[in-house]
Amino acid sequence: MNYYEQLDLSNIPKHIGIIMDGNGRWAKNRKMPRTFGHKEGSERVIEIVEAAYKINVKSLTLYAFSTENWKRPEEEISKLMDLLAFYIKSQLEKIKKNNIRIKVLGDYKVFPNKIVKLIDAALQETKSNDKMILNIGLNYGGQSEIVRASKMICEDLIAGNISLDEINTESFKDYLYTRGQEDLDLLIRPSGELRVSNFLLYQLAYSEFYFSNILWPDFHEEEFYKAICDFQNRNRRYGGL
């Protein structure tokens, strides 16, 4: 089935998040090192960003490196950093040309200095773009984001910038990394795992979940469209009837 042809282009989710999972298992199935899976997975990143752009998704959030990923072997982390640097260098001009804005969710400043400089440059050079926002989760955790937002609110309270009565579920969003963006409409997780893994915990309150047994390196454009078709066949009630 051609899922692209089945899409209702007037009902595209405004914000899609993807937990890119399964690179290691994909490589293991081929008797290759885990880094081989990460390299192939980075190719899917390029493909899916282009697919999201094609159908006018407003925000695409990719979970690239979590706060828990530091537990992985040092060599694997180093290879992931190299892949990140390669992706930024090789794709930045295309991203700029397509009017895509890059934003980072998480504390990326703890990364190696050369990576931080590349990220800083990418953020600066795309900050005025407004066709699509590409959020990349780097050293990101949903719980840490909520704690960070809470501290920022406390600072504003102490400084007298806001009053206690002004704090509510909507104003809280102004302190999140995704400030100004829509809440998550659709969460996609390949690889067969059925959990959210500390991803966008505040933003996914009313998200639709789509789980797939396909490992991320095999999650091609048609699988992405299939997930959106599934989303379009659901009745989103937001707690109502």
Question: Layout of SSEs?
Answer:
Elements: H1 3-6, E1 15-19, H2 23-29, H3 34-54, E2 59-66, H4 74-97, E3 100-105, H5 113-126, E4 132-140, H6 142-159, E5 186-189, E6 208-211, H7 221-232
Parallel strand pairs: 1-2, 1-5, 2-4, 3-4, 5-6
The top level CATH class name: Alpha Beta
Main sheet record: 6 strands, parallel
At the fourth level of CATH, the homologous superfamily is Decaprenyl diphosphate synthase-like
N-to-C span = 33 Å
Tell me the CATH topology.
Undecaprenyl pyrophosphate synthetase
**Poorly predicted runs of 5 or more residues:** none
Q: Please, how many helices?
A: 7
How do the strands of the widest beta sheet line up side by side? 3-4-2-1-5-6
Q: List how many beta strands DSSP finds.
A: 6
Helix content: 40-55%
CATH architectural grouping: 3-Layer(aba) Sandwich
Keywords: Magnesium, Metal-binding, Transferase
Function: Catalyzes the condensation of isopentenyl diphosphate (IPP) with allylic pyrophosphates generating different type of terpenoids.
EC number: 2.5.1.-
Organism: Peptoniphilus harei ACS-146-V-Sch2b
What key attributes describe this structure?
single chain; 241 residues; alpha/beta; Undecaprenyl pyrophosphate synthetase; six-stranded parallel β-sheet; 7 helices; 6 strands; 41% helix; globular; ditrans,polycis-polyprenyl diphosphate synthase [(2E,6E)-farnesyl diphosphate specific] activity
